[in-house]
Amino acid sequence: MIQIGENIYDLNDPMVIATVAGGVVALLVLILLMMSVRRAGKSTEAVQFVASQVGRLSQDVQSLGQGQQQLAGNIRTVSDAQATAQVQVVQTMEARLAEVQAQMAERLSDNAIKSARSLAEMQERMKDTLSGSSEKTTKSLTELQERLATIDKAQTNIEKLSGDVLSLQDILSNKQRRGMFGEIQLTDIVSKALPADSYALQHTLSNSKRADCLVHLPNPPGPIVIDAKFPFESYEALAAADTQELQKTALRDLGNAVRKHIKDISEKYIIEGETADGAIMFLPSEAVYAELHARLPEVVRAGFDARVWIVSPTTCMATLNTMRAILKDARMREQTGEIRKALRMLHRDVEIIGEKAGKLETHLRQAGEDVSGVLTAATRAGKRADRLDNFDFEELAPEPEQNVVPLASPKS
Q1: What CATH class does 176-334 carry?
Q2: 11 — phi, psi (to 5°)?
């Protein structure tokens, strides 16, 4: 860019380049002419030629000056147009920039509102989630505490059961305690199945033998003895046997132990004229009872032959219920006379009730007639009271006498 006075010329403009090139050409021509004049000396022709060329050059310079002025006007016009265009562009850009800024501000505002709304919704969801999680956690902890309490209770029961099992093992490992265990279980079953006056515990017989329980059945069959036996060692050996030979040996020992108990009961507790012609051996274990019937049926038949019946807790309860029915039937036969006497008295009571009901019916009928007479008199008195109230004395007329039913006291 070249500034001459108030005018600014762009070196890239073609008109400026052409003007500059013309000035340079004119300067070169003038230099060549001056050099020619020097070389030619003082030749008049050369001077005239130079003068003519100088005049022509002067005219060209004037034409060039006019073109330069015209070019300067054109440049000024172009500069003004460019300035106007620049102002318009700047204004347009400023307006566009303002519009873009407004749109950006609006979008930023919308985005801020959306972000705030999303943040509020997210906070609400987080609050709900945290609240739900807190409730679930509280509920889970409550359930966990309840389950822990249940587990603690179950643990306590397990510990108690373990203690009971250990106590049971101690009882079963001792022969005397094992006998007491069978007697206690027999006592519990008998006390639940029979009336208290129909049996005797630890009853001593005439042969000085003490029976665990004596049931007072009527003749026949007569009083029957129930004795508890528990061949635990033999059964435990059978359960622990892991080979066929050991099982066979343990099974034989179990059979021999039960046979010995059958023999003892048959010899001690079956007394002619005092007890029934049979006795009951109580096994306080369903497992031993099932093992005998499943694998030692000959031992059970041996008990039948010796008139000793083997029972378990379940079958003992059924047997005792049968005995209870027998006792009930016997007592009913014993009380037949009293029952007939009570029936005669009941019949007399029914007759007395019939007589009293007849007398009551008579009294009620007489009372009904008395009430009817009272109602009739009350109606007649009401009519007379109405006439007196209305001063209808003339209308009063003597009424014929009516048969009034007198009130009478009920006959006893």
Answers
A1: alpha beta
A2: -70, -15
Domain ranges of the chain: 2-121, 176-334, 343-412
For residues 280 and 309, is the Cβ–Cβ distance under 8 A?
yes
pLDDT digits 0-9 by tens, 180-219: 667 888 888 888 888 888 889 888 888 888 888 999 888 8
The one-letter amino acid code at 61 reads V
In which element (H, E) is residue 309 found?
Answer: strand 308-311
DSSP annotation of 48? H
For 95-122, write each residue's pLDDT tens digit. Answer: 888 888 888 888 888 887 887 787 788 7
SS3 312: coil
Give the pair of three-digit tokens for residue 124.
């609400």
Q: Which helix (H) or strand (E) holds 374?
A: helix 336-389
* Contact call for residues 319 and 280 (beta carbons, < 8 A): yes
Encoded tokens for 50: 């130079």
CA dihedral 47, 53, 55, 58 (to 10 degrees): -130
Contact of 215 with 198, CB cutoff 8 Å: yes
For helices 244-269 and 297-305, angle between their N-to-C axes, nearest 10 degrees: 10
Do the strands 7-9 and 2-4 form a parallel or antiparallel pair, or are they unpaired? antiparallel
Give the residue from 404, 405, 195 showing the smallest Cα distance to 320.
Answer: 195
> Is residue 247 exposed (0-12), middle (13-18) or buried (19+ Cβ within 10 Å)?
middle
- Other CB atoms within 10 Å distance of the CB of residue 201: 15
The amino acid at 138? T
Return mean pLDDT, the chain.
Answer: 77
Cα(361)–Cα(358) distance, integer angstroms: 5
For 309, phi then psi, to 5°, come to -100, 130
Which pairs count as long-range contacts for 291-296, CB under 8 Å and 24+ apart, including other chains? 291/235, 291/238, 291/254, 292/254, 292/258, 295/251, 296/251, 296/254, 296/255, 296/258
Q: What is the pTM of this model?
A: 0.41
